[in-house]
């Protein structure tokens, strides 16, 4: 960051009072511009014993297979984002389940979140960011052509949990998930 | 956003080709500036049958009680951020456990993540963002003076799960968590 997005003045790296890190601080309006990791949200869309994967039509990792996933947008919940990405990239309508994996990818400033999901029907089609979309059983997963380590790990965990009969348990005891609305603010004055 | 943080030119709201949302696009260098929700990471620090809460010394919700939590920083994992915030706000050293709750707070563009945690010893002290830090048993929790709905929900879930004997199960079957390092990139060329 070189310029203040608010006022256009130059920004400099300084550690604010009571802070422990250098931040981009505007020389004009003194706004502190924080930078934070972004969330990538996706699903493990299942039909019978198969998982739906997308062949990427975009960089990075063009031509490699991935679970449907993408950046969480402002104004949507992680579940809503995962459902949207699954529809946009794979043309699939899902019933979303519990949060299955959370992977920190600190070197690219991302947190990846994958939800269990069931296809409502075996209908899907490649969106603009996919070359191809296909259901794979475990033995047919293109393990050497997966796009990202977070996808590989999530698929390995999925099939391991499936073999161990743990997927039903995950449904009952996984991380608690909820959305908090504007109306639930405890104090409306703030 | 009015100005491009990269080149200082004015930005305009437009929907890029192959996108579905308006983005801030630079009129000078054409960079698309995405905006995404931020993660707030925290813990439920437990000692025996008590939970550690912090009385906020800062706005918003100054004077109200919260679980230790704060914005995830670039370059740290969600777990590392939760451990850091617990030390900064409550002066407490913890052993971190599984992810316990994920709450979307879309109207403020935040995702809140709370981890189970055990205090290593019953030592704690208010950091600069806290007025006071105190261990509370369930009956003593200041339910009417909690800072945020995500804290209230997380505490309600915690004590409910505790009553139901589910906390040990959470440890075994919760969401899979991992970090992915730079060295694990599948293809170094990209």
Strand content of chain A is 25-35%
Calculate the mean pLDDT score of chain A and round it. 90
**General shape of chain A:** elongated
**Which oligomeric form is depicted?**
homodimer
Low-confidence stretches of chain A: none
- Number of helical regions of chain A: 3
- Give, in order, the helices and strands of chain A: EEEEEEEHEEEHHE
State the total count of DSSP E strands of chain A.
11
What is the gyration radius of chain A calculated from CA atoms? 20 Å
Helix content of chain A: 10-25%
Q: Briefly note the structural class of the backbone of chain A.
A: alpha+beta
For the largest interface, the chains and their residue counts are: A-B, 76 and 76 residues
| Main beta-sheet annotation of chain A | 7 strands, mixed
Q: What is the first-to-last residue Cα distance of chain A?
A: 30 Å
Write a structural description:
- The structure is a homodimer of 190-residue chains.
- By secondary structure, chain A is of the alpha+beta class.
- Chain A is 18% helix and 34% strand.
- Chain A contains three helices and eleven strands, in the order E-E-E-E-E-E-E-H-E-E-E-H-H-E.
- In chain A, the strands form two sheets. In chain A, strands 4, 5, 6, 7, 8, 9 and 10 form a seven-stranded mixed β-sheet that branches.
- The first copy, chain A, is elongated.
- At the A-B interface, helix 1, strand 8, strand 9, helix 2 and helix 3 of A face helix 1, strand 8, strand 9, helix 2 and helix 3 of B.
Short description:
2 copies of one chain form a homodimer. The first copy, chain A, has 3 helices and 11 strands; from the N terminus they run βββββββαβββααβ. Chain A has helices spanning 78-90, 149-163, 167-173, and strands spanning 11-14, 23-26, 32-33, 38-47, 50-56, 65-66, 69-71, 94-105, 110-119, 130-136, 176-179.
